[in-house]
Amino acid sequence: MRISLYRYDPDADAAPRMENLELDIPGVGDLMVLDLLERLKAIDPSIAYRRSCREGVCGSDGVNMNGRNGLACTTPVSEVARRGKLTLRPLPGLPVIRDLVVDMTQFYRQYEKIKPFLQNEDPPPARERLQTPEDREKLNGLYECILCACCSTSCPSFWWNPEKFVGPAGLLQAYRFLADSRDTATEERLAELEDPFSVFRCRGIMNCVSACPKGLNPTRAIGKIRTMLVERGI
Amino acid sequence: MPWRRRQPPVAERFAPVVDVSQLPVMEFDGVIVGGGGAGLRAGLQLARSGLKTAVLSKVFPTRSHTVSAQGGITCAIASEDPDDDWRWHMYDTVKGSDYIGDQDAIEYMCSVGPEAVYELEHMGLPFTRTESGRIYQRPFGGQSKNFGKGGQASRTCAAEDRTGHALLHTLYQNNLRAGTVFLNEWFAVDLVVNQDGAVAGVVALNIETGEVVFVKSKATVLATGGAGRIYATTTNAMTNTGDGVGMALRAGLPVQDIEMWQFHPTGIHRAGVLVTEGCRGEGGYLVNKDGERFMERYAPNAKDLASRDVVARSMVQEIMEGRGAGENADHVLLKLDHLGAETIHKRLPGIVELAKTFAHVDPVRELIPVVPTCHYMMGGVPTNVHGQALTQGAGSGDRVVEGLYAIGEAACVSVHGANRLGGNSLLDLVVFGRAAGLHIEETMRQGVAFRAASETDLERAGARLVRWDHSVGGESVAKLKEELQRLMLVNFNVFRSGERMRASIHQLAELRERIGQAHLADKSRVFNTARLEALELDNLLEVAEATAIVAEARTESRGAHARDDYTERDDENWLCHSLFFPGERRVAKRAVNFAPKTVDTFAPTARSY
Ligand SMILES: Cc1cc2nc3c(=O)[nH]c(=O)nc-3n(C[C@H](O)[C@H](O)[C@H](O)COP(=O)(O)OP(=O)(O)OC[C@H]3O[C@@H](n4cnc5c(N)ncnc54)[C@H](O)[C@@H]3O)c2cc1C
Ligand code: SF4
């Protein structure tokens, strides 16, 4: 297996470089890209990447594998390697801190901007607020987001306007709260999104949909927000 | 698309990694080490009360291990059964603990539980719903109605099979709203303990910049989670390295019931990844290679929903007696296919994903290969119901450690005793996270000053950084870690034997020597994960050694601790907590609380399911 790995340590390297590594793995079999990274790290401990749950739910190890964004821990090597070769790079579009570790500040800031928490100022009942199974169903495909940034960092609109365009992940969450029957801040939420950038920078390229390791569909959510904005305008 | 480079962070580029005499200082009323469910619940309480609060976490909070919790949070909210009663939940928990759970703490958890769960719902947690719009509850192991006499209960509140994810994100979101200060991707190295034995804060490392800081606080809360990574296979995240327990032990503080490790019946064979007990709650069951539903023989009433320790032992027994499945006859199978595609996709969508990815089977049509896998640390830093850390005073009574709290899996309050019931950990997190927050709030209101710390105190807390940075040559961290994990897996599994445990204690002492001489090859400053893994190895060793010594000392079988040389429960000698004191590596006993405030004591009886 030949691996070409993006390396950059700001203290040691003037510029990023690609390091070529060989790893002997008899029959790639079940191996995930994260397992491969772990083996490389056992040989060269200086390789830096994030990881935690190793089962695709914590969202730490989003990386770019042969040009595709995804989670290292749930992507089988056999699925992304081409002719025994694998190129690993950090997620594109965000500043690189070191090797495969990117600075997620901008991504998180966009998430925070959409006020990602339930708003409902009515005093809560002594028990839970009721919600019908049908209303609850509307949150499926939205609440499962793991904030891995695979989508936003594959989105050209986000690359060019990371300060102003909320990006697919943030917008998916914006819709998660707009769609929640328990949330009463619909009007305020929409008002904050109606400028030309926050939502309308989305050009429907749909990279986000193919990048999302959880099978979520930010483009559809963005479409729903657009409809709500347009209806509100009338 | 461009890969953008960024300017190196502005901290002094080549400053020595630590010079403890010149540590920068940050000050907070409360600092919470850990941003999992427990840490975030405590953080929320403090931030809402207006105290200057920081949550310090080695991973971005939503990447904490709580995110992996699947099945749910157990609590008598009487949605599935209008007659449900928190006292029944209490009874189950006491019995599940094999009678060494503290009854005052269990009473507190079960009785205030509903309030804590409703709070989560009000904060936005997207629970699955029943037809009447209430929170959906599913059956879990060890649950009963009417004090064990009314059959199986359905008491575990669920958001599909992603309850931990839903809970952790909801808490993080509400902390954002409350203005909690987050020190994300900061690593706590050690507690700063002053000459009076009080905790003055922590020495912590900013992972991105490599900067080392004294984070000073009036109350320090350990919410660092479990240590499943002492085992070679585990359901736990790679970050579950027992850092809080390691810190407490290095500070000379005792840990409680650390020999009690839960093996979850359904870890995916080889991968170790968990499939929730909720699978069996929804009607799935285990079969051996002959397709026999063997739990009917071991637990005729509860069957597959007996307590986890019982099911895990039965599985190992099946395998040992040659009825394991697969080429090596080394696992059993979890059968869900009879539930039908609709139920499986609706109630267990995450499991379908995991089974396909890690076992290459589609549970709608195929059986999932499973083995008992290390899952949960019942032991931890002993605390009272307010989360205050305890040690023993001169007269061997409990004494509060000033300035220190512990909550969540890192703590032992103890509500789980010798065996935790499914869904009780998430409840533990929110109930005691909140309780610790409330207590700190109250203490601050009465007025507390920062505790003094001398240069020597700081030096001690930073010593590990210096040691690793001065290492030259020696064995690698990766190799030593693997050796430790293998040793624990083989010798401290579902069944344990005195002889092997004694041999392991010697091997661990040797490992301690070798780890002391080991080599940190990469001494760079920025986002140095090799340094983190070295620091974590120290913690794994502390937890593993404490586990081994106490497990060997507890000469009985109780809950998750099953010995082949002492096969019976010994209430005369061991109806008590164990305490491990690190200095002299001494094992002591501590009384279990049998005095709940509002109900009668549940007296120990033989445990059957
Ligand atoms: C796969 C799986 C499924 C589970 N399902 C359920 C379930 O359905 N129901 C249930 O009740 N329980 C379940 N459990 C158990 C439960 O999830 C855990 O016990 C619980 O989430 C632990 O929470 P915590 O807040 O104590 O710690 P964690 O969530 O583990 O968080 C620990 C925090 O501490 C931080 N930290 C650790 N060390 C340091 C350090 N040195 N410096 C700085 N920060 C540090 C981490 O960054 C993290 O933020 C499950 C466990 C597993 C493994
Ligand atoms: S929408 Fe999908 S790709 Fe985007 S952050 Fe969420 S989980 Fe990751």
Structure notes:
The complex is a heterodimer of chains A (about 230) and B (about 600). With about 230 residues, chain A is α+β, with helices and mostly antiparallel strands. Chain A folds into two domains: about 1-100, Ubiquitin-like (UB roll); about 105-235, Orthogonal Bundle (Fumarate Reductase Iron-sulfur Protein, Chain B, domain 2), CATH 1.10.1060.10. Chain A is built from nine helices and seven strands. In chain A, the strands form two sheets. In chain A, strands 2-1-5-3-4 form a five-stranded mixed sheet, with no helix packed on it. In chain A, strands 6-7 form a two-stranded antiparallel sheet. In chain A, a hairpin with a 2-residue loop joins strand 3 and strand 4. Chain A starts with a strand and ends with a helix. The radius of gyration of chain B is 23 Å and the shape is globular. In chain B, strand 7 (about 185-195) and strand 8 form a beta hairpin. Chain B has helices at about 35-50, 85-95, 105-125, 165-180, 245-250, 280, 295-300, 310-320, 340-345, 350-360, 425-445, 455-470, 475-490, 500-515, 530-555, 570-575, and strands at about 25-35, 55, 75, 135-145, 150-155, 180-185, 185-195, 200-205, 210-220, 255, 260-270, 285, 330-335, 370-375, 380, 390, 400-405, 410, 495, 560-565, 575-580, 585-590. Chain B has 16 helices and 22 strands. In chain B, helix 1 (about 35-50) runs parallel beside helix 11 (about 425-445). Chain B has about 600 residues and is α/β, with parallel strands linked by helices. The longest helix of chain B is centred in the C-terminal third of the chain and has 25 residues, at about 530-555. The relative contact order of chain B is 0.17. In chain B, the strands form six sheets. In chain B, strands 1, 2, 6, 7, 8, 9, 16 and 17 form an eight-stranded mixed sheet that branches. In chain B, strands 11-14-13-12 form a four-stranded antiparallel sheet. Chain B starts with about 25 loop residues before the first strand and ends in an 18-residue tail after the last strand. At the A-B interface, strand 6 and helix 4 of A face helix 3, helix 4, helix 10, helix 13 and helix 15 of B. Flavin-adenine dinucleotide (FAD) binds near residues 56, 61, 243 and 422 of chain B.
